[in-house]
């Protein structure tokens, strides 16, 4: 067994929850990256002298990166070489696994050198986790970039409780089969005691694959390993800091900014909004086309209706993402060129990222929120919109292929491959009676406000703690305000 460290809870994720920034005095520092996962996990890490292991972005070497403390969290930055960024991160993670796990919306590429790099990076992260974790500690591994870590870590440290959570969909057998390293990935995940997914369908896909491909005995959500260990696969739908978003949305600053945004748009009757990482899974192209056709058909008028699309830059070194960016640029240019008028574009397109306050103001300013991914693990944007609509107004158009659709039943649900269906839903949502809008939003708000990200993290860790009682300490629950 490797020597043990002092952390009772270790998070292993591809990225650290902080970004490297240049401070006003020119020195390098860290800024907490805004995100639901950090908000949820930070209080638990504090209550457990926890440690977060992850890549800080960039290609600094190991010697240049020292572990440090940030607001009660111990952060351990892991270096990646330029080759590893290209092969492990941009390659295997984002050009093999990402498209494969999202219904093959784009064609996954299979390259042996990418796989080798993915394995090597996973091994280094597992070794580091083994060094940091105290005897009997809990290690929670996050997401598709780290699927081999559970097994690698268990070999080094059989005393640990290991959990894994996949933030993206887990594909059906027919698609997963394509992966040349399918068995290694399944075995990697089986190193965990608890494998969490967004939806129960994904957990079932996983158990079925383990039975078919690895040959282990399974019963419902349990896998029985030959060494006597049991692995549980279950759904833990992730959420957001719901109260935090609502509070932000209620602030005077955000309220004023929302009014200002509508003024700057020319005070149209209806503001439609899309907010996504610029990713081909999100269905941005089809959604903008549907909106443009409604104008061409005479159903909506430019000036009275406007579509604001925020597309946050993402994975810009990956070829598919560059192609997508060009496609969207061209489409927006064509739509505005054909349909816009002076001072009234049909689409207001922003390829940029914004502070959380601006996101909340956009959610407040929008009458119709349009979330139309072809496939999405959950989609937090839909939940953030709901959390910000404390007046119970605002309409949500939501793809049935987003994980969030299982909880947000009262949204106008659409099939993003069906352009006509999407057009009707956009019109229905924007013309709906206020009473209908309120009834739907009230029900969705109840769901989102009651099931926040803290509840998500607590329920995962409680379940992990209840498994394999024979070994390991339990994680202390966080003290939340
Ligand atoms: C993956 C899964 C799953 C976006 N632009 C800005 C900004 N954002 C924030 C949003 C939201 C988050 O990023 C995006 O989360 P999503 O869930 O919508 O999508 P992915 O990035 O694909 O996330 C997804 C999620 O993991 C969690 O498990 O739901 O299915 O694909 O919070 O608000 N935030 C700020 N500025 C921006 O410009 N501040």
TrEMBL record:
Belongs to the glycosyltransferase 20 family. InterPro entries: Glyco_trans_20 (IPR001830). It comes from the Bacteria. This is Trehalose-6-phosphate synthase.
């Amino acid at each position: 067994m490797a020597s043990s460290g002092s952390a009772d809870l270790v998070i292993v994720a591809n990225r650290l929850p902080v970004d490297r920034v240049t401070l006003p005095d020119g020195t390098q520092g860290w800024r907490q990256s805004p995100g639901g996962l950090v908000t949820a996990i930070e209080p638990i890490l504090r209550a457990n002298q926890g440690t977060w292991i992850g890549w800080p972005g960039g290609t600094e070497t190991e010697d240049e990166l020292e572990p440090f403390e940030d607001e009660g969290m111990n952060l351990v930055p892991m270096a990646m070489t330029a080759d590893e960024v290209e092969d492990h991160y941009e390659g295997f993670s984002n050009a093999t696994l990402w498209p494969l796990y999202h219904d093959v919306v784009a064609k996954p590429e299979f390259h042996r050198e990418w796989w080798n790099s993915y394995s090597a990076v996973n091994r280094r992260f597992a070794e580091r986790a083994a060094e940091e974790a105290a005897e009997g500690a809990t290690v929670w591994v996050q997401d598709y970039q780290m699927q081999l870590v559970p097994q690698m870590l268990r070999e080094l440290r059989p005393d640990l409780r290991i959990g894994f959570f996949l933030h993206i969909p887990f594909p059906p057998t027919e698609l997963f089969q394509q992966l040349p390293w399918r068995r290694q990935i399944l075995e990697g995940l089986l190193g965990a005691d608890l494998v969490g997914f967004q939806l129960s369908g994904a957990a079932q896909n996983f158990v079925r694959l383990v039975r078919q491909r690895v040959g282990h005995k399974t019963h419902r959500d349990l896998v029985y390993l030959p060494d006597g260990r049991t692995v549980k696969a279950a759904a833990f739908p992730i959420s957001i800091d719901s109260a935090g978003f609502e509070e932000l949305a209620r602030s005077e600053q955000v309220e004023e900014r929302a009014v200002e945004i509508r003024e700057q748009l020319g005070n149209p009757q209806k503001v439609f909004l899309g907010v996504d990482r610029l990713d081909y899974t999100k269905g941005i192209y089809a959604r903008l086309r549907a909106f443009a056709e409604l104008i061409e058909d005479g159903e909506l008028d430019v000036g009275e209706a406007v579509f604001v699309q925020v597309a946050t830059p993402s994975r810009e070194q990956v070829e598919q993402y560059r192609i997508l960016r060009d496609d969207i640029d061209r489409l927006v240019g064509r739509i505005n060129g054909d349909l816009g008028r002076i001072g009234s574009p049909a689409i207001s397109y922003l390829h940029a990222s914004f502070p959380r306050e601006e996101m909340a103001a956009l959610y407040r300013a929008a009458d119709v929120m349009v979330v139309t991914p072809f496939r999405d693990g959950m989609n937090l944007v839909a939940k953030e919109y709901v959390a910000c609509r404390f007046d119970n107004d605002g309409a949500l158009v939501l793809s049935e292929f987003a994980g969030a659709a299982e909880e947000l039943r009262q949204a106008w649900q659409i099939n993003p491959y069906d352009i006509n269906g999407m057009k009707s839903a956009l019109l229905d949502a924007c013309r709906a009676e206020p009473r209908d809008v309120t009834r739907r939003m009230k029900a969705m708000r109840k769901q989102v406000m009651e099931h926040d990200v803290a509840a998500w993290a607590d329920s995962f860790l409680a379940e992990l703690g209840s498994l394999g009682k024979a070994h390991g300490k339990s994680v202390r629950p966080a003290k939340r305000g």
